[in-house]
Amino acid sequence: MLEKLSVGETPRWRSSALEKLRVEETPRWRNSALEKLRFEETPRWRNSVLEKLRVGETPRWRNSGLEKLRAGETPRFRNSVLEKLHAGETPRWRNSALENVRVKESPCQRNSELEKLRVVEIPRWRNSALEKPRAGESPRWRNSVLEKLHARETLRWRNSALKKLHAGDTPR
């Protein structure tokens, strides 16, 4: 190390914080938040929401809809249900089934199965497999494996390996 000083090279300890202070360079810790406060610079956390509230500035969340409602300002709801309620208009869901009955429109409950029967429409379950035999039609499951077994028809899997195993034969 003494040789480095005599040759003119910089030893390792010359780059330390203490040496930088002697040479009047700024060490790394001088850029910390506490050091910036000592030198009256603004550190990063000074821009936080809590700090802005202390200083009296308006943080970003103060511009939210809830905060504007608390302050008595009109928030920007972008034509939503809340905006219509705030403005005193009637939103879409306020036109409920009871309201539609008064206006004699078709409410959502008019589309129910009981209402379709009253209006003599064919509800969806009338087209189901259970309803078709009552009406004398052949439902889709009539062509299924269970139906073929019931009708004693020969199924495709009757000749399969499972069938041969069940009968005691040796499958290939």
TrEMBL record:
Specify the protein name: Uncharacterized protein
Which organism's genome codes for this protein? Amblyomma americanum (Lone star tick)
